[in-house]
Amino acid sequence: MTSNQQVPSNEQWAELEMAARLAAKQAYAPYSKFTVGAAILDGNGKIHIGCNVENASYGLSNCAERTAVYAARANHGMQEVLAVCIYTPTPVPTPPCGACRQVLNEFGPTMRVRAICDGEDMIDSTLDLLLPGAFGPKNLQDAAH
C-alpha cells in the first residue's frame, strides 16, 4: 500500500479501532486510571499498537500514540504513518495531546486521525488540521536549500 491510495478503508478502520481498544487493556495507568490505546497504520499497510505507560515521575510517562510510533520504528523500521486511531474508555473521545501530535507529524503530517470512545461521538480529522503551522522534517529540508 502506498500513501497515494485512499486510506484507510472501512475494513482497516475496523481493524485499527479493534486494535486500539485491545491496546488500552495493556495500559499501565496506576496514577491517573486513564487508559489509552492507539493503533497506527503504516505506509506498508501494517498496524502497530501502543498504550500509555505512566511513571511515578509523571514527566516520564508516555502516551499511547507515541508508544505506537516508537515501537513501530524500533521493531519494524516504520517510515510513514497513514492513520492513527486513539481509544479512550470515556463517554466522549479524547484527541491526541500536543506532544503526540508533534511526534505523529514527523511520520505523517497529513495522516488521518480518529479518536473513539465508549460513547457514540468520534473525532475524525487530519493531523494538519489538529496541528496547524506544524514544525517538522520539511522545515529542516527547506532550511538546507
From TrEMBL:
Its EC number is 3.5.4.5. It is an enzyme of class 3 (hydrolase). One of its GO terms (molecular function) is identical protein binding. Zn(2+) binds at residues 63, 97, 100. CDD domains: cytidine_deaminase. InterPro entries: APOBEC/CMP_deaminase_Zn-bd, CMP_dCMP_dom, Cyt/Deoxycyt_deaminase, Cyt_deam_tetra, Cytidine_deaminase-like. It comes from the Bacteria. One of its GO terms (biological process) is nucleobase-containing small molecule metabolic process. Gene3D superfamilies: Cytidine Deaminase, domain 2. It holds the Pfam family dCMP_cyt_deam_1. The active site is at residue 65. Keywords: Hydrolase, Metal-binding, Zinc. Its cofactor is Zn(2+). Residues 11-138 form the CMP/dCMP-type deaminase domain. The keyword Nucleotide-binding does not apply. Substrate binds at residues 52-58. One of its GO terms (cellular component) is cytosol. It catalyses: 2'-deoxycytidine + H2O + H(+) = 2'-deoxyuridine + NH4(+); cytidine + H2O + H(+) = uridine + NH4(+). NCBIfam families: cyt_deam_tetra (TIGR01354), PRK05578.1 (NF004064). Belongs to the cytidine and deoxycytidylate deaminase family. This enzyme scavenges exogenous and endogenous cytidine and 2'-deoxycytidine for UMP synthesis. This is Cytidine deaminase. It comes from Chromobacterium alticapitis.
